[in-house]
Write a structure and sequence with these properties.
Shape of chain B: rod-shaped
Oligomer: heterodimer
CATH superfamily of the domain at 53-231 in chain A: Cytochrome Bc1 Complex, Chain C
CATH topology of the domain at 139-308 in chain B: Rieske Iron-sulfur Protein
CATH architecture of the domain at 53-231 in chain A: Up-down Bundle
CATH superfamily of the domain at 139-308 in chain B: Rieske [2Fe-2S] iron-sulphur domain
Distance between the termini of chain B: 64 Å
Number of helices of chain B: 6
CATH class of the domain at 53-231 in chain A: Mainly Alpha
Distance between the termini of chain A: 70 Å
Helix content of chain B: 25-40%
Largest sheet of chain B: 5 strands, antiparallel
CATH topology of the domain at 53-231 in chain A: Cytochrome Bc1 Complex, Chain C
Structural class of chain B: alpha+beta
Amino acid sequence: MAIRRSPSKAQVRREQMLAAVNYPIDWLEERSGLVGGVRYFLFRNVPSDINWMQTLGSAALTAFIVQAVTGVILAMYYRPTPNEAYSSIQNITDHVTMGWLLRGMHKWGASVFIILMFLHMGRVFLFGAYKYPRELNWIVGVLILVLGLTEGFTGYLLPWDQTAYWASVVGINLNGTAPFLGPWLAQFLRSGQEISGDTLSRFYSLHMLVIPGGIIALITLHLYLVVRLGVTSPPWSKEAAGAEVVEEASPLRAGLTRPVPHGSTGGRD
Amino acid sequence: MREEHGPSPTIWPLGFAVGISVALVGLIVNPEWISTIGGGIAIVFGFLWARDATAEMRAQTPVVQAEVREMTPAEAAALPAGAGEAAMAPPPPGQRYPRSRFLEGATLGLGGVIGAIVTVPVVGVALLPPFIRQRGHTVDLGPLDAYPVGKWFIATFTSDPGEGEVSRRTAFVRNNGVTNNVPSFTIISNRCAHLGCPVQANGPTGAILGEKNVTEHTANGAVLLRPVVPAGFGCPCHGGQYDTEGNRTAGPPVRALDRYSFDIKNGRLTLLSTFSVSHVVGTGAQAKIYKYKLANPGDHIDGPEEWFYPLQPPHH
């Protein structure tokens, strides 16, 4: 006859703790399936030979999130009117606690976001990751890039100092030189024939509501397509579609394998 | 014998086109009333057209047979006594508009109407205001005595005092004297014809000349007049250069500097509106100014490149 040992006190407590932690998660999962969805997103299979270059997209996403969050906080102190815009920026920089840091993050983060988008685009181009069936994701990415640049253009006016003002005058008039619809585009951006307070609030609305909304929607679509179509292997991958299955390299040589062009025997003939 | 033919010709598309044309013309003439009327005409005729065009399609509803099958003996046996007949009479044979299709159409139609009602004002307010009711401002630049004949002044003024400092503009003003009883002024806008930066006078001003700046208090607030002896005008942004008549002499500008039209009201110099200039021949009162409607900086107004800008947005 087997003796059933009653569980120890520590064991009981651990099980109770686990149940307490799991309960809300299970509650959520049962009613929404969200936990499974997040798990699917985070733990989906990716090629085993992806490398650090393929983190540039996530890096750009992180930069965008930083821009969104710092921008929302800046909006709590910024006033988009001709008489107050510049002084409210000075107030953020000089008086709001850590305002200088927040504004600096937003200002420099803008460049980081653009640079990361370009690096990410370069990686996708050089890896050939834009090819079938991922062309649509390239197109969506280009739209995000354009909207990102538009964010830079509209955000540049907001400090409302001499640089901002005249750079925006030049930028708007550059748009105005586009053939056919250019003059209309310029007048739309300027909100009339002359730069005025309306131009400032218009750029503010575009900068913090319209364009970010578009970027968020497009990023969602971008990520959906990434998950649906999967991550591309690097061009030198042995796992590339159509390539011969090769034995796994010794762990000691991991990362040292030289790329072998398709169709060559790699000097083994 | 009837031949197969397409829908008979209707006049609805014509009315629709008229409505659209009226709406478009109204955008230029009178956006509030004419455009609304045109839009209304277009909507009414569009609806009638759509109804006419889909009439045939809507008439050809499929004949739906009531679903009927023989009961198996088991089913028949399972029926309670007295319930052997159908609880509801089968629908009468003939054409019948299926309920699901009606609901589908109603959802799309109502949804479309609600969407349009909500979208029209949103898109309208987003796009139209920059283009309609753009009013110019007349600017009072002070008494004529403030402008001795033959002298240049850099005049700085707020074109719309209600708008504040953001409407501050600069013009270069020279009194050319009176010829044949007509006063002549050369009033050049400082907006560069390249990309709109503020053009500066190339020459000594104020203190260097030994002359004082004058502030005239006018209906447009304080107007600052700084005496200057310009050899020409130059832009700090991309190096465009102009002569004293505003003709481009070097750099990227595509035309001469814009000018202000003016009037003398009660002995005061008054700016009316701005116009663009391709080039100027001669100087001062004798100048022949090749005048065009105000254009965006960087837009060609003459020569073949003008064809790239066929439609200028409405100006005052």
